[in-house]
Amino acid sequence: MKANNNDIKLTIEKIARSIFFIIFIGGLFLFISFTLENICNLVIFDTLKIPCINTLEAAGIVGFGYIIIYGINFGIKSMRNEMTNRHKTNSQNADN
Question: Is the residue at 96 inside a domain?
């Protein structure tokens, strides 16, 4: 069974889009990590006399912050959905 040319084009397009997305998100992550590292080393740690951080530690801080921010955001959305579903009357609920 031969694959259709259109299917091959769609598959290649999806793979290329996925690779571009991974590279873009990775580049953005590294840029934020380098920026955080430089800001911390130049501003915060020089004034407080604390040891400098490296890029890997900055990446960990960025990743941890990402998890915390989106975890809280997900929790808030879940609570809103739960509260709106709780206040529906019986006539508004889906029939089983």
Answer: no
The 10 Å CB-count burial string (b at 16+, else e) for 8-18 is eeeeeeeeeee
Query: Looking at the domain assignment, is residue 62 inside a domain?
Result: yes
Give this prediction's pTM. Answer: 0.63
| Euclidean distance between CA atoms 33 and 25, whole angstroms | 12
Give the C-alpha separation, 4 to 17, whole Å.
20
Question: What's the total number of domains in the chain?
Answer: 1
CB atoms within 10 A of CB 70: 10
pLDDT in tens, 44-89: 877 888 888 999 999 999 999 999 998 888 888 888 777 777 766 5
